[in-house]
Amino acid sequence: MFTLKIVSNKGFTFLEVMISVSIIALVFVSLFRMQSGTIRLATAGKFNTIAPILAKQLLVTVEQDIENWSETKGEFSEHYSGMEWTCEVSDVFFENLDFISEDNQKRFKKIDIHIVQPSESNSYEISAWRFLDE
Q: What is the percentage of the chain residues whose pLDDT exceeds 90?
């Protein structure tokens, strides 16, 4: 009597394994790109939240002694390491304004504050105009 023996190959071919590995690699690359993009957005969001607050604090400090302010750049405390600032206080002159005397024009000051985070290429600028009291 004859015995019929059926041989079954239940494994995968090399081609199927390579296609599966390629699909998994593409999925992982996409996930890693998405994760790095999320981290970059979170860092930029943190800077865009903190920079205006730090600029306002620096502006208040400059306004307290605006006539004698001489610092042009600096860094913030260790809580905000990596963030630097520059500040420029300049005179503002208005041309063809008859209702403001020359003495009063000399009392106008412009304050430009620029905050940067060089490691992340983030920057924030603010300008303010102040009239000095006598």
A: 47
